[in-house]
Amino acid sequence: MRTALFGAGRIGRVHAASIKTDPRSELVAVTDVVNEAAAALAREHGVEARAPEDILADKNIDAILIASSTNTHAELIEKGAAAGKAIFCEKPIDLSLSRALELSKRIAGHARPMMMGFNRRFDPNFAAVNAAFAAGEVGKGEMLAVTSYDPAPPPVSYIKVSGGLYRDMMIHDFDMCSFMFGMPKTVTAHGSCLVDPEIGAAGDIDTAIVVLSYADGRIATIRNSRRAPYGYDQRLELLGSAGLLEARNEIENTVVKSTTAGVVSAKPVYFFLERYMRAYSIEWSAFVDAVVEAKPVPASIQDGVNALAMAEAANLSFAEKRTVELAEVLPGA
Amino acid sequence: MRTALFGAGRIGRVHAASIKTDPRSELVAVTDVVNEAAAALAREHGVEARAPEDILADKNIDAILIASSTNTHAELIEKGAAAGKAIFCEKPIDLSLSRALELSKRIAGHARPMMMGFNRRFDPNFAAVNAAFAAGEVGKGEMLAVTSYDPAPPPVSYIKVSGGLYRDMMIHDFDMCSFMFGMPKTVTAHGSCLVDPEIGAAGDIDTAIVVLSYADGRIATIRNSRRAPYGYDQRLELLGSAGLLEARNEIENTVVKSTTAGVVSAKPVYFFLERYMRAYSIEWSAFVDAVVEAKPVPASIQDGVNALAMAEAANLSFAEKRTVELAEVLPGA
Amino acid sequence: MRTALFGAGRIGRVHAASIKTDPRSELVAVTDVVNEAAAALAREHGVEARAPEDILADKNIDAILIASSTNTHAELIEKGAAAGKAIFCEKPIDLSLSRALELSKRIAGHARPMMMGFNRRFDPNFAAVNAAFAAGEVGKGEMLAVTSYDPAPPPVSYIKVSGGLYRDMMIHDFDMCSFMFGMPKTVTAHGSCLVDPEIGAAGDIDTAIVVLSYADGRIATIRNSRRAPYGYDQRLELLGSAGLLEARNEIENTVVKSTTAGVVSAKPVYFFLERYMRAYSIEWSAFVDAVVEAKPVPASIQDGVNALAMAEAANLSFAEKRTVELAEVLPGA
Amino acid sequence: MRTALFGAGRIGRVHAASIKTDPRSELVAVTDVVNEAAAALAREHGVEARAPEDILADKNIDAILIASSTNTHAELIEKGAAAGKAIFCEKPIDLSLSRALELSKRIAGHARPMMMGFNRRFDPNFAAVNAAFAAGEVGKGEMLAVTSYDPAPPPVSYIKVSGGLYRDMMIHDFDMCSFMFGMPKTVTAHGSCLVDPEIGAAGDIDTAIVVLSYADGRIATIRNSRRAPYGYDQRLELLGSAGLLEARNEIENTVVKSTTAGVVSAKPVYFFLERYMRAYSIEWSAFVDAVVEAKPVPASIQDGVNALAMAEAANLSFAEKRTVELAEVLPGA
Fold first, then answer.
1. Between chain B and chain C, how many beta carbons pairs sit less than 8 Å apart?
2. Which of B162, B171, B296, C104 is the most exposed place for a label (fewest CB within 10 A)?
3. By the 8 A CB rule, do D177 and D204 touch?
4. What is the CATH T-level fold of the domain D121-275+305-329, as seen in this structure?
5. Cβ contact (<8 Å) for C207 and D142?
6. pLDDT per residue over C270-326, tens digit each?
7. PANTHER family given for it (chains A, B, C, D) (predicted)?
8. Is 0.90 exceeded by the ipTM?
C-alpha cells in the first residue's frame, strides 16, 4: 500500500514511523506547507518531498495520511476522496461541526476506506476493556468514567488556535465514550481555569468535567486537566451489572523502592508519544487491514462527526450553564 | 465517660462495641423502642436496659449516643441538649433540611460537645488523604472524585423510608467532599434506575452522579451505585496543583494467585462493617476527646446541616434537571 | 473456658486481650515472676494475680496460657499436663531440642488439648494461601519462598539469651514451611552479620538464608534479616505446577500519592503486633475450638518439635558449613 | 557501523531487527550454516547472504554479531578478533569454562570492542534497580534474590544439547548477580526434576535454587523453574541497609477486572521476546556506543567467563552436594 504523508510535524513523524511497522504499507512521499520540514522528513525515510497536487494526481499512490494542521483536514479529505485515495485523517475533521457534517455528506459515496485517527481505541489497555465489555464479562454497562490529564499545559499560542479544551483535548475522551457506550442523549459541561491564568485570559478552560447521559439511563463522566505533575494520566473505569473494568496507567518501569519514606513506584509514562506509541502502530495496521483486506474501518468519519458534536454540545452547555440535548447540535442524534 | 446508647439495631451494636475500645468511656445503659432488642444488647454488655426519659434524667450519665431510627434523631438531640448531655448522633440529623436547620439554631447555645457520626472522616485512608492535602503535599486542590458503591441494594422496603439515594446514601459522600473541599457553590445531579426496577417503581434511583462546583473553580464528582458485585467500593481521588492523592479500597487479604487465567487478587472488604470497623472506633475516641479533653468535635451539627443541604440541592437539581445553587436551599451558603 | 495467663509481659498482654475476643473464653487469673507486672495486668482486666501453684491446683481453671519466658515453657507444660489443664504455649517449647523431645514423649498421654502458639498460621493471608494450596488451586507444590524481615534488630542483651537467629527468629518461618510443605529432608544454612556488628560480637548472625529440600524434590528458601528499614516484611511465595500463590505485606493504609517524585504508597505495617493482631485473636479461637468443641489443635507439640529440629539442623549446617539431614538431629525424620 | 550477522535463527532475527533501531548501525550481510535461512533473512532486510570467510575478509565490515549456535561462538570470536572486527557475541562464550578462559587470554590484546549479549542488564527495570543501587538509594547491599522462571520447558531435544540448566538458563541470573553484587566467593546449588520427567531422564533438572555468598557476608539466591504457567516470571529483589529495591514483572496490559470472582489483572508478558524486546535494542545501542564513541562495553568477555564459572561451580556443587568455592573452578577468583 503506497502511502503519501501530508504533514511533517510532530504527529506526522510519528505516523511516518508507524507506516514502517506494517510490512504491507510503504511511505512513498511527504508533503508539508513548510518545504524544509517535508524535505527533512522525506530525506530521513529515503522518499521524495512532493507537492500536494502532484501526490493526489499520482495513480501509483494508494493512500494518503493526513497529519497536517486541523484547518486543512476537511479540504484534503475531500480532494483525497475525489482522487480516489484511501484516506487516513488525524482527528478532528474540522473545528466546525457544520463543516464536518457537510463534508461527511459530500464524501458519503466515496468507495475507498476513510478512517479517523482516534488512536486511543487501539491502545492495548482500552482495547482490552472494550473487548471484555463486548464479551459480556461485566454484564450490562451502567457507568463509565474517563480520566484524561495531560502532564503540562501547552503554550497559550497553541490554546488560542486549538478550538478550546472540549474540541481539542476532550474530543479524544468523547470518542472513548462512543467507543464504549455509543452516542449519549445529553451533555452537561463544567469547567474552570485553575492551572494557568493565561489560558483563562485566552478565553479557554484547563480543568473540566463533562457528564454524558444515555437514553437508557447509563451515565458517563469525563475529567480533563491540562496538568498532572506526575505524568500523562490516562485511565478508564466501566461499571457493569456484573463487575468493574479498569484500564490503569502504563508506568515507566516496574521498579519499587521501599524505604523509611514509603514504597515508591515509577510514574506513568510521560505523554502521548510514550503511552500511545504502540497504539499508533496498531491503528495504522487497522487502516491497512481496511485497505488491503477490505475490513471495516474501526473509526469512521461518522465517529469523527459524533465526537465533534459532543464537543459542540459541551461548548453550548458550558456557555449556557445547562444540560444540552445532543439533538440540539446534531439533528437526528 | 458514662454513656447511654439509644438504638439497639445493627449500627447501635457497632457503637456499643466501639465504646469499649476507648478505656475512657463506658456503656452504662441501652434503650430501644423494641424492648427485647434493648434487653438483649444490654445483657450482652452487662448493663441495664432503661427508658429514654429515665436515661435523660440520670445525672450520672454524661453522654448519649443516638443510633436509633432517623426520624427520632432531631427530637433526641434536642432532649439530650436540654438534659445537658454530650451528644453523639448518627447521620443524618433528619430527612428534612428545614427541621435540621431549626434544630441547629435551637441548640446553638448547648454548652457540651455535639458530634455527627460521619464515620468516613475517621477511616485511616481518607483521614490520611485529608492530612496530606492539608499539609500541602499535592498543592492547591483542583478536582475531587468520590466513588462510593454499595455491594448490593437494600430491600425496597428500606428504600421507601430512606429519603432517597441522595439523602440516604450520598450524604456520606457529600460530607466527604465537605471534609476535603468545604462547601460547594452549585450542585448538578444525574441519576438513573439501572440496578433494580423496584427501586425505580418506588420513586428512587440506584445509580447517580453529582457534580459540585466551588466558588473558586474547583470541581468535585460523586459516583454512587447501589450495586458493586465485587464488594464495597469506597475510593477517592484528589488532584492538586502538585500531584494526586488517592485512597484505594481495603481488600480482604493480600493473597495474589497467578495462573493461566490471570493474576487474581482479593476483593474489597464486603461492606461498611468490615471497611469502617476501625473508623467507628477512632470516631468514638474523637468524641471522647471532645468530651474529656475539650477538643473540638471533628464533625459538627453544621457539618450535618451542610451534607443535608447538598442532598436537598441534589434532589432539586435532579427534579428540575438544572444546576442548583446551594444558596437556594441553604440561605447564606 | 476459664483461663489463667502465665506471663504478663508484652506477648502476655497481647494474649490477655485476645482471650476477650472470643465470648467462649474468660481470663480469670494472671501470674508472673514479676509480681508488679502480674498485679498490673490483673487489675486492668479485673481479675486476680495468683501464684502459679495456686492456679494449677484450682479445679475451676480449665486452661493455661503460657506466655512467660522461654526457659519456663517446658516445666509449665509438664505441670499443666499433670494438673489436667488444656494448654496453650507460646513458641518455642524450649531452646533445647532434646528437652523438647523428652517433654513431648512425657506428655504424650495428656488427654486435653495442647497447642503451640505459631500465630502466623492464623494470619488471614498465609491461611488463605494454605487453603488455596490445599484446595489444589496451583496444583502440586514445587518451590516455597518465605521472606521474613524484622523492622529493626532487638538489643544485643536480647540476642544473647535468644538462642540465636535460627531458633529465635527463623523458627516461625520453619513452622511456616512445615505448615505449607511438611517436614523437609535436609537443611542448608547460610548467614552473616551485616546489620549490627554487636550481634556478631555476641556470636550471632542477623542476615540468613536457609534452603530446605524435601524427599520428593520440592525446595524451600527462607530469608531473614533483623532489619528492614521500611517495616515488617512478611511475605511468602508458593510455586505449584499450575501457578503461583503469594501472600504480600499488609500496608498501613491504602493511600497513594503521585507527584513528580514518583508514586508513593504506604509502608508495610510496622511490626508483629500490627501485622498479626488479627492472627492472635483467630489463633486463640482455634484453641477454644479445640477445648470446647474437641476440634484438633491446628499447631501441635509435634509442630513445635519439628520447628525446633529444623533450627537445630540449621545451627549444625551453619557451624559445619554443610547440608544437614533432618534425621541427624531428629531420629526418624 | 556496517555489521554482519552470523546466525539467522530466532535470536538472529531479533538482533537483525535491533540493528535497525540504531541509526548509527546498518546490517550489511547475513550468514548461516543453513543457506536457506541466511538467504531468507537477508532478503527480508535487503542485504546479501554471504560466506563467513568472505565476511571476515571484507574490510568494509566493521562489526560482527554472533548469534549462531553456542558451539561456534569461541571460534568466531577468535576469527573475528584476528580479522580486526568489533564483536558482539550472544551468551555463552562456550559450554566449556576452560575453553572460554583460554579464548579470553588469547584475545586479550584485541584492540576493538568485544561485548557479551547479556541482554537483561539492559532491561529498563533491572537497569533502574542497578542505577538506584549504585546511587546509594538503599544503602549498602545485603541480600539479593533473583526469580527467573520460563513459561514452559523447551523440548527435551534442546535440553540434551543445552549444557544443563545452570549453564543454559541460570547463566543469565548468574550474570544478573554479577551485575548487582560482583563475583561471589562460594556457590551452593540445589536442584530437582519436578516439571518434566523426560528432563530428568536426560540427566538434567528443571527446578533449581542456588545460593551465592560473598566475601563480605552478602548473600544472593537464584530461583529457576522451567515452567511458570502464568508466563515469564522475571523479578529481582535487593535488600540494602536503607531499603529494598524490587523489579517486578512487566504485564500484558493494565486492565483490571473486578467481579464476584476476585480482582483479576493481566499476566506477565509471555516470554523473553516480549519482555526483553526493548532490552535487545538498548543493548545494541550500547555496543554501537562502544564502537562508535569508544565507550567501555557494559558486558565484557570477563563477564562471560564469570557467569560460566558460576555455572561450573553450581554443577560441581550439585554433583558433590557441597558448597563450592569459586576459586576451585576459576583460579584467582
1. 80
2. B296
3. no
4. Dihydrodipicolinate Reductase; domain 2 (3.30.360)
5. yes
6. 999 999 999 999 999 999 999 999 999 999 999 999 999 999 999 999 999 999 999
7. BINDING ROSSMANN FOLD OXIDOREDUCTASE, PUTATIVE (AFU_ORTHOLOGUE AFUA_2G10240)-RELATED, NAD(P)-BINDING ROSSMANN-FOLD SUPERFAMILY PROTEIN-RELATED
8. yes
